[in-house]
Specification:
The chain is mainly alpha-helical and 144 residues long. The chain has one domain (28-59, 67-139). It is built from six helices and no strands. Helix 1 (5-20) runs parallel beside helix 3. The protein is elongated.
Amino acid sequence: MPPGRPFLLGVVLGAVLHWLWPWPVGPYDYVLPAGVLLTGLFILFVVTGLRAFKRHGTSPDEKKETSAIVDTGPYRFSRNPAYIAAAILQAALGFFFNNVWILLMIVPVIIVLHYVVVLKEEAYLEARFGSAYLDYKSRVRRWI
């Protein structure tokens, strides 16, 4: 499963639930700035993450073979900052659309992502890089 798909499904399901049972976050004057702030945080994660991949000479494309362990930029703090960024974007959309359901869908999305994508990625990286990846795992948390 492509890593972005669970987030897209979470947003769509949240939108459908909101259509059936509207549940706003709050007054839009307060909700909109939160969406803007989270969007800025998302952009920061994406830009710094892509720079880290470029510095290590490997591609962030999950379809391409990984040629290096990226351990700089946001990857110093989390082994999955791209997925954290996607969750932040989903939260931003929840605020922009003033939709609690989209926010709540982040939890099942992360659970599905963990079991369907992350565990397989980690097994691949352990097989590919061996002790170097195990060392990275011992130094850096999976999430936050």
